[in-house]
């Protein structure tokens, strides 16, 4: 009997956040002042900086938007809702100067370093934020930006298509090209057609998901024989 493997089976890219993140990012402590944070962002050409404690645990993030808001609305609450007072020129390092703990946005969206790129991309897409703090064992180890993800997936669909057809169905499974259909759009691979065995379908999905540039695998492959199903032994009459 013909059967269809799980229509909604999805296999994420096997690469992880660790492989594309920006490691050892610039950080500031909770007591770092606004002027020093602004100088860091300007000098390093970055749009935001994580705020960490003495154990490298992430407390929050201060962005350019936070600094602009503090300048435009010096009496408004920022970050955790603390009220800021207008700074005077002579107060560059005074107790009244806004600190990172008052400016930062918290809590921060973070992702484990071993999370798949596909999962991290979905997290960024749903949240609408521009970057994720990457943690390992509760400590900050990197930052993942939208640009990092784009570079990680920067591979033409035609190259992905060529590799799926030649390496997965050709070299690995020995399946004629006329037996299957492969479509690729923005890194999402759609597999169509029918193979002989269920194990072949599972292998095709797995191998396709490991190809660099693949964001997601949508399986529409069917199979003729479920070789993973062991027939029940017939009762033997005495």
Could you give a quick summary of the protein structure above?
Keywords: CBS domain. This protein is an alpha+beta fold and 238 residues long.
Describe this protein's structure.
This protein is α+β, with helices and mostly antiparallel strands and 238 residues long. Among the domains are: 3-14 and 155-225, Histidine-containing Protein, Chain: A, CATH 3.30.1340; 26-108, CBS-domain (Roll). It has seven helices and twelve strands. It has helices at residues 34-44, 64-72, 100-103, 117-127, 146-152, 157-172, 198-209; strands at 3-4, 22-23, 48-52, 58-63, 77-78, 82-83, 110-112, 131-136, 139-145, 180-185, 188-197, 216-225. The strands form four sheets. A four-stranded mixed sheet has the order 1-12-11-10, covered by helices on one side. Strands 2-9-8-7 form a four-stranded mixed sheet. Strands 3-4 form a two-stranded antiparallel sheet. Helix 4 (117-127) links the parallel strand 7 (110-112) and strand 8 (131-136). The longest helix has 16 residues, at 157-172. The two termini are 33 Å apart. This is CBS domain-containing protein. Residues 77-98 are annotated as: Disordered. It comes from Prauserella flavalba.
